[in-house]
Amino acid sequence: MIIAIDGTLASGKGTIARRLSDLFALPHMDTGRLYRATGVAAMNAGADLTDAKAIAEVASKLEPSLFTEAELRTAEAGLAASKVAVLPEVRAALLELQRNFAHQPTGAILDGRDIGTVVCPEADVKLWVDANVEVRAKRRHAELKAAGDTITLDELTAQLRERDERDRNRKDAPMVAAADAILIDTTDLTIDAAVDKARAAVEMAN
Ligand code: C5P
């Protein structure tokens, strides 16, 4: 069973993916981590984030396990991720890794922006998770603040809009719900209620 979970930033898709991974004992890949690690590695190397060839080289040699969660979770890493994610060469360099993970014998859960549309269009269950932008900004702001980040809510809201727009409008693998995705709007849902909906969708497909 392959479960594809896509959606906007801070919509709750990562939490839903992790909870489903526990509930159904399926391995989980947070594909945003690959783009974040690529962005951070490129910044550390002093590379120009618009240089497709150089960044694709970074992506193809990526060792995501070498990065700590703390360095990948910053707002700066998220912004760098969304910049390198525009480059088709970078997306191509990360594709096989994601597909191989999806097609392991146990099945898998992947969350990201293009899992149901590009990485695993054959997924057994596709979820699209979204919430209103103010709610998402508040959630992410609380997380970043707890981690010691000093970004303000206004700055973060602007960044979130910028990233959503870049993700939605890029030519290659834009962020969009697959036609056959089940929509979960988490604006007014607790995390438990959102997970219940996701679980019901998976059980229906089983
Ligand atoms: O989900 P997360 O915030 O960690 O993703 C960081 C960025 O990586 C996204 O804003 C997006 O630009 C990119 N990304 C992507 N495709 C994916 C996962 C993430 O383009 N499957």
TrEMBL record:
EC class, as a word, reads: transferase
Positions of ATP binding: 7-15
MF-aspect GO terms: ATP binding; CMP kinase activity; dCMP kinase activity
Q: Please indicate if the UniProt record lists Nucleotide-binding as a keyword.
A: yes
Which Gene3D superfamilies does its entry note? Answer: P-loop containing nucleotide triphosphate hydrolases
Q: Determine the domain of life of the protein's source.
A: Bacteria
Q: Which Pfam family, an example, fits this chain?
A: Cytidylate_kin
Q: Which CDD domains match?
A: CMPK (cd02020)
Query: Which reactions does this protein catalyse?
Result: CMP + ATP = CDP + ADP; dCMP + ATP = dCDP + ADP
**What are the Cytidylate kinase domain coordinates in residue numbering?**
3-200
Which residue windows are coiled coil? none
Question: Which locations, inside or outside the cell, does it occupy?
Answer: Cytoplasm
Query: Can you quote a single GO CC term?
Result: cytoplasm
According to its UniProt record, the EC number is 2.7.4.25
Annotated keywords: ATP-binding, Cytoplasm, Kinase, Nucleotide-binding, Transferase
One GO BP:
pyrimidine nucleotide metabolic process
Give the matching SUPFAM superfamilies. Answer: P-loop containing nucleoside triphosphate hydrolases
Entry similarity comment: Belongs to the cytidylate kinase family. Type 1 subfamily.
Please identify the protein, giving its name as recorded.
Answer: Cytidylate kinase
Recorded source organism is Henriciella algicola
The taxonomic lineage of its organism, from the top, reads: Bacteria, Pseudomonadati, Pseudomonadota, Alphaproteobacteria, Hyphomonadales
